[in-house]
Amino acid sequence: MKCTLDGGNTKVFAKAVQSLSKFGGDLFVEADVDGMQLRTLNPTKSAVGTYRFNKSFFDYYETNQNEETYCKIDMRACLTVFRNTKQVERCDMTFIQDQEKFQIQLKCQHETLKNTCISVDDEENITAEMTPENNCNTICGSHKIFTEISNNFNPAEEEITLEAQDKKINVKNYVEGSRVNEKFMRSQLQLNADEFDKYNIEKQTSITFCLKEFRALLMFAEALNESVCLQFDMAGSPVFVGISHRDEIHCLLIMSTLSSDEVSFYDDCQESDVQETSTSKLCQKRKLNSTRTNDKSKSFRRDTKQKCITEDTTLSNSSSLFQFEKNSNKRSSSLSIAAPRNQNPSLMTESISDNSILLLPAVCEESNRIHTNPRKQTLALTSAEEGVTEISSSGDEDCVPESPKRQERANLRTIFSRCFQATYVPSEPSTHGQIFALDSDTE
Amino acid sequence: MQHSKTLYEKGLLKNLKMLTQRQYSNFKFVARLDQIKTFYTGIKALNFENNGKFQVSEDGLRVTVEEGNCVQANLYITASCFAEFHVVDMVTFGLNMNIISECLGLFAGIPCSLKMFYKGDGAPLVLVLHPNEEADISAECSIKTTNIDDVIDYNLDEESRTLNVVFVRGPALANIFQELNKAADELRITLSPRQPHFKIETLGVVKTETFVEVAKTSDMIMLFNCRDTTSACYRNTEMRLTHKALAAASKVAIKTDSSGLLEMHFMMQSEEQAEVYVQFYIMPLAEI
Fold this sequence. Notes:
Chain A is of the alpha+beta class. In chain A, 14% of the residues lie in helices and 27% in strands. The radius of gyration of chain A is 27 Å and the shape is globular. Chain B folds into two domains: 2-143, Proliferating Cell Nuclear Antigen (Box), CATH 3.70.10.10; 164-282, Proliferating Cell Nuclear Antigen, CATH 3.70.10.10. In chain B, a hairpin with a 4-residue loop joins strand 12 and strand 13. The longest helix of chain B has 10 residues, at 170-179. Chain B is elongated. The relative contact order of chain B is 0.17. The model of chain B has no long low-confidence stretch (mean pLDDT 86). Chain A: One of its GO terms (molecular function) is exonuclease activity. Chain A: It is found in: Nucleus.
């Protein structure tokens, strides 16, 4: 296989490699008559990403008739090659030495040629013969909306849960009823169907999947400035995230989702939840127990639709730690606002518009907790009937005027910068070998 | 250690702005530099080893730093770069590079002028730093000097029939070196009148072989004068010692011959257009 990319497409290709590098350590390169694809698996094999480049993407693409080359190379080696593509004018890729090495030649400005030969690890490929069903739930939207959603959560967050309903969708970083420790802070945001380009929920469902690979794919979607499509069925079935660019690039990320157990565990979990939260008076951040991710080892060579996780988690809906307050004069299509996660619990989020939905942190005083919907099947957390107003909705009244700024003589700090550093440098021994006075205390 | 009073109070410096004739008689070496920036950059580029040898002659100042028997770095500042420069015969002393680097950096980047005084054998080197904008602040440093052995005299034979000389633009070469894999063990540098003209290969990275090639017609090459093909390997850690000098250089001269000894001149343009340059000698690894 031999192919050539021009400068602009090399940058796109580099972005693809950078995005895939966030998954795992091996890159599978597969080339056939119609194009080339890059695939990778994450370490737990619970997600596979495939970025396919049609031969029209390349300036020149040649394979032997009926030839299908596939190999596995080290991801880091590939990433090093494509790390800086600013000065690249042309990229040539080919297999040399009888498919034993993968050669990448970059022709750069100033008549510079950079050549890398990466040894092929293995002749392996991934088979993931899975396609989304025709009648499954579909949500398509610009990369911007999904990036906003993912930015709403802590970068360290591992999983998110999507609760998809007819007209709206809840995205949260926890599954209700799950056991978490005291430091964990739960956040949730609700979006209306009209925020997305296409919103088609055949069957209301709730799925939980890993955020890391999703973010990696979003990074590439942003580079391409394309929209992203999610297709999923019920919890336990894989979710398919796809990008399509001008018929030249097709990306597909297949991720497994947590399966939901029957509600038999539901009551037990809920009670313990109540006990945990009733002891605390203030809302505290809670660290997520990341026990879930370890059990997700699956082989994609199995042609199964159902991906089951051993972790027992349930979807509960009536331990409403979050309360929603809608202003009385809301319009029918009010904006959904994502409240920033790491908030000072004693302050409130500022209302961005009059018609915003405010996200109040869990108020753990028993008297204010309102269990809105004891029905187990409804996933919506609806608003509190009594306005919970002990926390004011805007920060204006709490604003304290700023203290007058000190006039800075910028030079002073730089001139005396040495005074702010430790005086004693242990590496240089004292000239006399005798200490007459010890260092004074740092106060 | 000498002075607890400043030189000014002692009457050694009559006028802070200018050195008078009388002061020279006490000192073997006196110099004044109006902008320390280039000098400071040069000292920092040499600060990979602690022991530096200062040699002052009528031509100028030379600072030498060596690492083992493999690498030697020299900083050359000609007498014309200094606002004032007086030396009695040849003056040689050793100094801790880290200390002088810290002293020159006392004012953290603010433009300063520098005066240097050296009384003679055993005396410390006195530096007086004076920020150009602030009239009422100055810093005085007194650094102990040591005796130092001779340094190795490296030399590339100008007449050798395998002498290769290439002048490259500083920023472009810095770019190339920066992109090389830092995990490599060795670098092989090949210069040749035939293709490939200028090639740097990284060796020792697992599963990857990389090289960068620049054609002699490239606009980053200002001069290409190769008499024969030379190729030698150098340790990556030693090559990386040049990176501070490379980052500050406006142009770089690379010279080598069949012995493999690599000489690199990093020209640093100072404000007054007088040249300060750092010269590195790097020994090749023996071919097995």
